Amino acid sequence: MFRPKLPDVPTLPTPTVTHQQRQAPVASAGRPIAPYVGIGAGAVAAVVVVGIVLTALLAAVAVSAVSVAIAAVVLRSLVNGAHKR
Q1: pLDDT for the residue 57
Q2: d(Cα 48, Cα 41) in Å, to the nearest integer?
Q3: Half-sphere exposure of 71 (CA within 13 A, CB side)
Q4: Looking at the chain, which terminus has fewer C-beta neighbours within 10 angstroms, N or C?
Q5: What's the per-residue H, E or C state across the chain?
Q6: Can you give the pTM of this predicted structure?
């Protein structure tokens, strides 16, 4: 009956803080990129193998041409030496 009545404690309004997260734009999920990476790696490997094979063939042709030229010079000198005797 004689109790004092305390005033209500006012509550401060809490500001609502919304953190907006910025994310990188997501690539379209229409086509996966994994098959194209596999195809690209296979294509690069094929180009490297073909390049190595063609380089080896070119080197073989060059060595054969040099050996044929040397053989022709030797045969010509033998034929010319036989005609002079």
Answers
A1: 97
A2: 11
A3: 6
A4: N
A5: CCCCCCCCCCCCCCCCCCCCCCCCCCCCCCCCCHHHHHHHHHHHHHHHHHHHHHHHHHHHHHHHHHHHHHHHHHHHHHHHHHHHC
A6: 0.48
